[in-house]
């Protein structure tokens, strides 16, 4: 968790630093006009206090992709990178571009994201312990590792039950769950990850949500040259796309008559495909 926030106000260009606390952020927002858009980078949980405070005060904000902010800085000739420079770049980005106002997620979806984050941590810990179990040289060490694996598995199952209960109690999440369950190959774990890591699911068209999830092939063309289209740039690169790839072997072989089978590409025999065809077919069939 970051301890301070660097701020930049336009058109004056003055910068300041405030503590990353609810009281400090609330006092700062009182100095802003109601129509002033607050622009900041997504920082994987470090901006939770800022988002919660702005949401409580119903102040508009735009949470931008850090990669896009850095590319904007380079495009404007700013190569240096410090917290103060980043604050000024974000302010200029908000003034130059028509950034969309970020819709705050519901409390249930925010809780779901926290539970999924913890579940992911436990799964990674269990995976590491299983690898250590393979190289355990003594029986007592192996027993300790087995006990730790059993404990982690118990905690993961408890989290799964809590996640299921949370989804069932929330009307919006339960409605989206019913829609996604109609797609073959979507299990409860993948379903929960999609709901938690892609809050815009159901708000965008199929092409935009597929691009956001990193499943839409992007064109690479210049003049007469046409390169292979590749999937990249996922907002949930580490979480959503690896989870989506799990049911895709089923989707890749389903027949054309199946709702999820339209657009599937046959497997190549003599060369490695440039991108997973099952991912492309999934993006075109199972968006809401």
Automatic annotation (TrEMBL):
Compositional bias ranges of the Low complexity kind: 274-288
GO molecular function: DNA binding; transposase activity
Transmembrane segments: none
Pfam families given in the database record: DEDD_Tnp_IS110 (PF01548), Transposase_20 (PF02371)
Domain Transposase IS110-like N-terminal stretches: 15-132
Positions of the Transposase IS116/IS110/IS902 C-terminal domain: 179-231
Region (Disordered): 264-288
One GO BP annotation of this record: DNA transposition
Range of residues in the leader sequence: none
Name of the featured protein: IS110 family transposase
Species of origin: Gluconobacter thailandicus
